[in-house]
Amino acid sequence: MTPHPASRVLPLPGKFLRFVLVGGICTLLNLATIWFVTTRLGWHYLVAAAISFFAVNGVGFVFNKYLTFTQVLRPSFREIRRYYIVMSGSLALNLGLMFVMVDALGIHYLLSSVTITLLFMIFNFLAHLRWTFAP
């Protein structure tokens, strides 16, 4: 596959490591948002997870576009749409799994969130690599 002329070539392991770094930053922002909305505002943890999704995913898009996948062009509507399609699928699965882990299994909501993030890491990376930011 020929690299897109507007992207800087970065080997796959380097892209994955950057994706993990971006994911770590977004996970910390996600946990802080969920904790704040749940603990300080007293809202349900699933509502907090949905709010966090919308608050943090813009940051994830920008960091992944320019740092992970080293795209140098301005974001296209196609990329933004694809990014949010992938992440919306992850959100739906995330909320379902969080409900099972917290309400059915009694696992703390923050630990559940981290576990689910780790479970989705490879899928999200491959979806963004092969579809969202593909030339």
Automatic annotation (TrEMBL):
It is a multi-pass membrane protein. Residues 18-133 form the GtrA/DPMS transmembrane domain. Keywords: Membrane, Transmembrane, Transmembrane helix. It is found in: Membrane. The chain crosses the membrane at residues 16-37, 43-63, 83-101, 107-127. Belongs to the GtrA family. This is GtrA/DPMS transmembrane domain-containing protein.
